[in-house]
Every structure is written in structure tokens, then in C-alpha cells.
Amino acid sequence: MSTVLYRKYRAQDFDELVGQEHITKILKNAVKSDQLSHAYLFVGSRGTGKTSTARILAKAVNCLKPKKDGNPCNKCEVCQAITNGNYMDLIEIDAASNRGIDQIRELKERIEFAPSKGRFKVYIIDEVHMMTKEAFNALLKTLEEPPAHIMFILATTDVHKLPPTILSRCQRYDFRLGTKEEITGMLEEIISKEKMKIEGEGLDIIVRNARGSYRDALSLLDVIVNSQLKSENAKKITLGEVKAVLGIPEVYMINDLLTALIEQDAQKALSCIEELEQKGTNLVQFTSFTLEILREILVAKISGEDVGEYTFATDLQLRDIMVLVKEFLNVERELKSTTNQILILQLLIPTFVTEGIVKKDTTAKVKGSKGVKENNTIVESKSESVEVVNADVIELDIEEIEKNWKEVANGVKPLNTHLYAFLGASHPIKISKNILSIEVPFKFYKDQIESPASRELIGKVIFDVFGTHCKIDCTVNDGVKPKLQSTPDVVLRNVPVIKTKKEKMQRKEKSSSVDIEAIFAGM
Question: Which domain holds residue 73?
Fold first, then answer.
């Protein structure tokens, strides 16, 4: 039985680990100088080398003939036993299935025994975040006062689930995802060793689907290699074979569906989705590939580059692409939790066709705007609405903003009543390059309106009302004076002093006929 590639080519010393030099350098120095911790925490996405590093560290600290640079020799009895998986003093625990307090109590009973061969008895606890609260509490005591011959290496993909008490007692190392170049280089080296050939685009697809995971990249390659065993030329892998094995859709299928959604062509969109179903396309892969294409388009738009073969995106604006990305991210999330996957894709049709989220010609309607910018030219409009063609920014008119400012405030009201009150007391004064200046009576109003949350909320309402984005800039009207508060002290301070008995009586008689509210009103 042949060994799968990720096991066959598993790193056996620190130097063979790809992309984690920031970690291996420190660990090698720690081994070399004998500055070892009793507890390590390896954090990172799956397939980035956490378990491999843990095993190499276990080798290095127990190696009978360690190298001067801190690497294990990989030749001594201990190294060979760890490589073969039969070293008694290396105990690997899967916390996903051994997560309870009973397992940790059993572990605590065993750690008192000294290692049989090397210096340390090493416990590797994988997916440690899966342990129960009681198990963590039991483990904590051991981490606080470990025997000198014990080393713990905890590994996790979800470090935020670990208690702070555990985190504080471990040396933490964060493993990063592999870059495109690193994973490509690793695969090319292994393909060469296996005496195989693969088309460049096929290799790119494997790297893209690995999403930074070295192990996933090797697993995908393994699947493709095994699918070639019965072919006439098993050592040559074509692009078509990679796509067929991994269920990668053709680019035209993505182009057609996105074009139909953008053009609000319900029938065409439905036909595209039916084609996916008829061909048995992996819808998770289809959605993932679609998101990758949208990412490429987004980067091209931001960089000012051509969108290449994705012609449907030529006239799209950044906000349109962001809408597409958001909707397909929702699809990707929902596909994982349903058995009726085709329905999730079909629900995109009414979302785009009914609501018209994206329009390819970037047409917008603006109420009463005097002009818009088209290729840096202002186009005058004689009607109450104007069509904007290929305009990145709609230039608004201050008079129109003033006319509809109440509508903006009313749009905010159901979302934030306090903010509605602040806007109600403000009024627009000018707009320049889509920076809208509004005047408010007090600095407190300015602070509230210009908070990040308020800016975002107001911006959305302004976009709904005027069809474009504006940045809010508040100016405080210093001429507005706050009302003097009417307190008993204030009232008494303004009452004239009465010196004689007669004056007191006259004053008393006069005051009885005076409305007290009038006194306050005059303050």
C-alpha cells in the first residue's frame, strides 16, 4: 500500500519546514542553548505544519546525537522511533475525541513516570480548544507545576477558545499560511521527485484550492495522481484532468451566470444554474471559484488594470463588485448547511432581478440634480431626474440637498431616534467634491453625528435618497447660545432687594398677580 504524499514528504527536521522560518529559527536556538519551555502553544490554520513541527521538536529535545544547529540527527534510535511513530515517550492526543476530565486525569497519573529513553516525555495535544472547561481546569494545575521531564505542545486552529489561564502558561507560536510561491515551489519539487509532469494552469488550480494549506495542496495532488493510475500516460497530468477531478467549473459558466445576474435576465440565469445541475458540478467549488474570479476583478479595478477575459465586469463599479462578492459569500456559507444546494443558487435570481442590485451600465437616478459628471464633463438636465452614464461620482446640488434634507432625517429616524433629532436641528450649507458640510448648533451634536457608526448610517440613507455617497463634515454655529437654566438661585438673584416694610408689602401684593412662568421666560 503506497503512502499518501503528505505523509511521504512530511518534514523531518526544522530546515525542511516550508514558510515557517520565523518559528523554526527560534526553536533551533532554544534547543541549541537548552533554553526550553515546559509548554508550547502552536496556533494556525490547518495544514500549516503545527503537528510536524511538534514532532520535530520532540525529536530535537530527545535526540541522542543532535546537530550543532539544533536539528535532530534523524539517525539515532530515538529519531527513528519518532519518525516511525513508535516512540513510547511521545504521546499524541486528539482533544476532539479525548476532551473530558477523565482523559486529563489519566494523563496526570502517567506523567509522573520518567521517560524510557530520552530527556523528555512529550505530550502533543491537537485541537486543544475542543477540551471541556473541567478538562482545562485539570490541565491547568499540571501546566503550573509540571515535572522537569515533561513537555507539553498544544496545537489549535481556534486560539480564541482557549482560557487566558492556559494561554499565559505557554510559549505561543503563530503559523502562517503558505504563499502562492511557497506552495507552488513545494509542489514542483515533489512532482519532480515523483517524475511526473503537470500543466502550469493545472498546478495553479491546485495551489488556488489549497488556500495556503501545505497539507491540503499535497492531498489535492494526491487525489489527482491516484486518478491517473489507470490512464495511458499516468505521469502526465493535463489541465482538463485537474478540472475534472477537482470539479472545477469552466470559466464560461461563471461568466454566463454573472452576466445574466448583472443584466437582470432571469431566464438566462435559471438556464445557467440548470446547466450546473445537469453536469453535476460541485456547487461549493463553483461558488468558491466564482469568488476567486470576483476577487481578481476587484483587485484589477482597484489597481486600474484591465479585467481581461471577464468582459461582463468592464463597466461595473467597485460597489457593484462588492455587492456580488457579498451575495456569493452568503451562498458559500449557506451551501454548507443545506441538502438542497441548487435552491440556494436559484435564490440569487430574485435577489438581483427584483431588487436590481447591480446594473451593468451604472445608470442612476438623482432627484432634481442640476448636472452630472460624464467623462469629466458636466451634463445639464432639464427635468427632475437625470440619467448618469458611466459616472463614478454624482455631483449633487446644495439646493436639492436642502430640499430633501428632511427626507434624510426621516430615513434615519427608524434606525436611530437620537441621531434623527440631531439631524433635525442641522441644515446643509455647502457641498464640494461630495463632501457635504452641515451646520449644527452645538459641539455635542457634531461629535455625535461624526462618530464612525453615525457616519456609516447617514451615508447609507443619503445613498438611498440621492443615489451617491457623501462624506459628512459638521460645522458648529458659535452664534447659538445655550439657554440659561432656570433654577431657584437664578430667580432669586434677579429679584431686587426690598428694604422697607412698606416696599415689602407692595412687592408681595404685586408678585401675587405675576405669573411665575413669566419670570422664567424672561431669564
Answer: 5-174
- Angle, to 10 degrees, between the axis of helix 214-227 and the axis of helix 180-193? 40
Please, are residues 396 and 371 in contact by the beta-carbon 8 Å criterion? Answer: no
pLDDT tens per residue across span 263-298? 888 899 999 999 988 888 888 888 988 998 899 889
pLDDT at 76: 92
Q: CA angle, corner 357, sides to 353 and 362, nearest 5?
A: 110
Whole-number Å distance between alpha carbons of 263 and 260: 5
Sign of CA dihedral 386, 387, 389, 391: positive
> Residue 458 corresponds to which cell in the numbers above?
447617514
243 neighbors 259 (Cβ within 8 angstroms): no
Residues 224 and 101 in one domain: no
* Residue whose grid cell is 511513530: 85
- Complete DSSP assignment for 178-206: PPHHHHHHHHHHHHHHTT-EE-HHHHHHH
Scored b (16 or more CB within 10 A) or e, 206-217 reads: bbebbbbbbbbb
Q: Look-up: residue for cell 449633487? A: 396
Write down which residue in 246, 272, 303 finishes a domain.
246
Residue type, 70: G
Total count of residues recorded for the chain: 523
* 90-94/121-126 β-pairing: parallel
How many CA atoms within 13 Å lie on the side-chain side of 98? 14
Whether 107 has a pLDDT exceeding 90, the answer reads: no
